[in-house]
Amino acid sequence: MLEGATMTGPVLRAVDLAKHYPVGSxxxxxxxxxxxxVDGVSFEVAKGETLSLVGESGCGKSTTxxxxxxxxxxxxxxxxxxxxxYGAGSRRKALRISRRIQFVFQDPYASLNPRMTAGxxxxxxxxxxxxxxxxxxxxxxxxxxEMVGLPRSFAARYPHELSGxxxxxxxxxRALALEPSFIVCDEAVSALDVSxxxxxxxxxxxxxxxxxxxxxxxxxxxxxxxHISDRIAVxxxxxxxxxxxxxxxxxxxxxPYTRALLGAIPQPVFxxxxxxxxxxxxxxPIDPPSGCRFHTRCPMKTDICARIDPAMETIAPxxxxxxxxxxxxxxxxxxxxxxxxxxxxxxxxxxxxxxxxAGSAAGQQELRS
Length: 369
Ligand SMILES: Nc1ncnc2c1ncn2[C@@H]1O[C@H](COP(=O)(O)OP(=O)(O)OP(=O)(O)O)[C@@H](O)[C@H]1O
Prior knowledge:
- It is found in: Cell inner membrane.
- It contains 13 helices and 14 strands.
- The protein has helices at residues 61-68, 95-100, 108-111, 118-128, 137-147, 164-176, 194-211, 222-225, 247-251, 256-263, 303-307, 338-358, 361-368; strands at residues 10-23, 33-46, 50-54, 76-81, 84-87, 101-104, 182-186, 214-219, 231-236, 239-245, 268-269, 272-273, 313-316, 319-321.
- The strands form 3 sheets. An 8-stranded mixed β-sheet has the order 6-7-8-3-9-10-14-13, with helices on both faces. The protein has a 4-stranded antiparallel β-sheet with strand order 2-1-4-5.
- Helix 4 (118-128) packs across helix 5 (137-147) and helix 7 (194-211) packs across helix 12 (338-358).
- It binds adenosine-5'-triphosphate.
- Residues 21, 35, 37, 55, 57-63, 220, 285 line the site of adenosine-5'-triphosphate.
């Protein structure tokens, strides 16, 4: 059963995806120790949908995203995308699939070659995949720059001559060059100031609607994903624990981990955002706890939680939870959501502000500066 199955038919399905890394040395005939970065994750994304994948650092979000775009091979399970299937060992065979599904990295400064201009960075995938005839390449680069709200003249700039938000726009233009139908955005706005975050989120929203894209948006900040997601999938220690419509986890979180994440939602500090934390340490993915993986940190655990791994249960249309105690988790009290409201309302306000600006030529000029 796929977690949180969609109504309109999926463009992408991840089926029981797992990535186990061998760690340490194999000696005295002992079997290799495995780090279970992702340990059996299934979900669907519909055409034109934004699914956000959230969870603390190290829970396997990036690894999941990288398997979708074939940057890494799964250890088991497979991905179905636009009617094709790929899994362990099929990475090299699927150049055509990889063109249609692209990745936007967290740190555009690290992902852009410092010796390439923005124009060369955007033009590179066009020539690698022979997308447009050589003579028309610069016209296409200029179109892509304008599509992400940058002037054509920026084609001549090097990454160090761009701001963080402008670099991220170049990263998005580079991903769009191959005319994908699906983009995985891995913490694409985490490194940016809150106001620049809102601009880039706005851009992604606009592009999604204009180009009919589907997005997997990876983030640790629930307040950010709230405004751009159709559904949210919460991940813990290599597994999904809750999948629901975007409004649902905020009003009615049923997994104690989602609840803890909401309680720990980051607060803006001088325009930047502090990382979210949940009490206690995340156990090692080399030796995950038996039963429910969250039980070692769960305030609601009972005996069964340590013994039996809970199955993912559909508790309402589109709302799936893997927890023995979900019935006992009350909706968040208003007071508990105060931190979310402050930060989230700020992003919401900024999104509205930038939408207004984008509507006028003068506003667009201001946003580019
Ligand atoms: N190449 C690798 N070899 C061994 N372990 C790895 C490798 N890549 C990731 N891991 C481990 O897999 C686990 C999941 O990592 P991943 O980067 O997917 O988490 P994440 O949720 O994206 O975290 P973050 O938000 O910090 O990026 C972590 O424990 C990480 O240390």
